[in-house]
Amino acid sequence: MGWFRVFACSWWGSGGAVDSLDCVAIVGVGLIGGSVGLALRQRGLAETVVGIGRRQSTLRAARRVGAVTRTTRDLAAGVARADLVLVCVPIGSIVEQVRRVAEHARPGTLITDAGSTKAEIVRALDRPLARGCRFVGSHPLAGSEKAGPQHARADLFQGRLVVLTPTRRSRPGDVERLERFWSALGAEVVRMTAAEHDRAVAWTSHLPHAAAVALAAVVPGRYLPLAGTGLEDTSRLAGGSPELWTQIFAANRRHVAAALRRFERQIQALRAAVEQENSSRLKRILSRAKTKRDAVGS
Amino acid sequence: MGWFRVFACSWWGSGGAVDSLDCVAIVGVGLIGGSVGLALRQRGLAETVVGIGRRQSTLRAARRVGAVTRTTRDLAAGVARADLVLVCVPIGSIVEQVRRVAEHARPGTLITDAGSTKAEIVRALDRPLARGCRFVGSHPLAGSEKAGPQHARADLFQGRLVVLTPTRRSRPGDVERLERFWSALGAEVVRMTAAEHDRAVAWTSHLPHAAAVALAAVVPGRYLPLAGTGLEDTSRLAGGSPELWTQIFAANRRHVAAALRRFERQIQALRAAVEQENSSRLKRILSRAKTKRDAVGS
């Protein structure tokens, strides 16, 4: 696959120099940004965490849950003293926000994101940014169908995977620094190319989302009172933001369409086996799925 | 829909006479049978709980977790003194096992099951059984992809729905007795016809299972290390027993096929919207799914 797991330090800076993080700026303090802030603060990893956003209500909520030490709606002021800037906004706005950050951050500041797709973003930002700032893409495979800093959790990244998508232009020191950063929040870090990342998450994240959405969309409303834990779990992702997911599907269009086509064919095969009362075929599909699923873990 | 929720007593017999249950016999002490036993014992609702099964290893496991007070492989001996018999075996064996129970139970004993489909079973058993025994179908909408008494939980039915499927031949007293029984285990009880039940669970249980199976079956194995909580939850049901689910899909063939057809079309619509970069169509589907999903609860 061309990617490898980083058997990273289990704590901030162990096995390497401790990064000095006087100030981390987080642009967009929703679930992900808020959880990063909360984890940084609860682990005592940053002196100051500045939350930057457009809506006062979100910033207030981020302060209230303790995800940030101060907030501002002025991006330029917010990033001015940051050692590291995380851009945790919907993917459609990441490129623009990273460029704006670079224009106002200290020279040479490292910037990363938390976007669910990477190819378009990395392509647009893999060039010199203003003031010598540099971007390396991150994707924490963590989250929830719930949005907003009020659902932030300090342990959101604990034991989860974070994919970094450096390019040939990326400085090794920047990539290592981000590895230490996410590891310090409890995550395991792997590196992949942006293209590999997008193909993989089409299957492991975007297809499950589409399946949950299609399921929730077709279940007749009058039967919902009979929903058990099975339907609850299987359709959980459909509770996610339609706005965000429209952007994600669009940004990863080709891989998502391919995964959906394959999924359709599998559903057709299942239906054919049911209709034709082909029990042995049915059991084969169910057994193959169980073997795969048992490898995922609970 | 023709079914109604029974705002049942929250505890055994409250609002009615307390049923005397000296002895409950459970044929098949897997996850469901074991959990019934555990709940009966932990709540002090039955003096004796007899576990009846074919395999000594399962019976031993049921005893070990405290789901039963005694066990036997001899069905005739096991049901001989029971006040109530639960048949918790795979659906393909329920009819035969209920008939065997009737031949050996005390005259007039009430028998129920825990099968995931009801029409075939109820049709076969809606007639006089041996020794004046009577059958009324139950389906507790509770469970797990994990099998066996070692996964039994006393709270498995707590807050879950149990569907009873009485017929015109059923005695009101029998139905009320089963309502009190399941309510005493913490469940909410509703009554439906077997046909209504099977149509409803095709959507709320069998379709989610098929979606999880298809998802697990198609995700390329090399990407599984990137599975996040989204894929984990969405594919959880695929860990269920292929043997049991082959029987369930077969028994509810017509309704399952109809649900799968509708699901296929929705997946196609999603794919078309992605391929055609039709964001407004995509967002409409996602929004409709979210509204439905938000009504299911977490």
Task: List descriptors.
homodimer; 298 residues; alpha/beta; Rossmann fold; 6-phosphogluconate dehydrogenase C-terminal fold; six-stranded parallel β-sheet; four-stranded mixed β-sheet; 11 helices
Give a structural overview.
- 2 copies of one chain form a homodimer.
- The longest helix of chain A has 25 residues, at 194-218.
- Chain A has helices at residues 31-42, 56-64, 75-79, 91-104, 119-125, 172-184, 194-218, 229-235, 242-251, 253-275, 279-296, and strands spanning 4-6, 23-27, 48-52, 70-72, 84-87, 110-113, 134-135, 137-140, 161-165, 188-191.
- Mean pLDDT of chain A is 92; it is low at 1-18.
- The first copy, chain A, has 298 residues and is an alpha/beta fold.
- In chain A, α7 packs across α10 (253-275).
- In chain A, the strands form 2 sheets. A 6-stranded parallel sheet of chain A has the order 4-3-2-5-6-7, sandwiched between helices.
- The first copy, chain A, has 2 domains: 4-192, NAD(P)-binding Rossmann-like Domain (Rossmann fold, 3-Layer(aba) Sandwich); 197-296, Orthogonal Bundle (6-phosphogluconate dehydrogenase C-terminal fold), CATH 1.10.3660.10.
- At the A-B interface, α7, α8, α9, α10 and α11 of A face α7, α8, α9, α10 and α11 of B.
Question: What's a concise summary of this model?
Answer:
Chain A has 298 residues and is α/β, with parallel strands linked by helices.
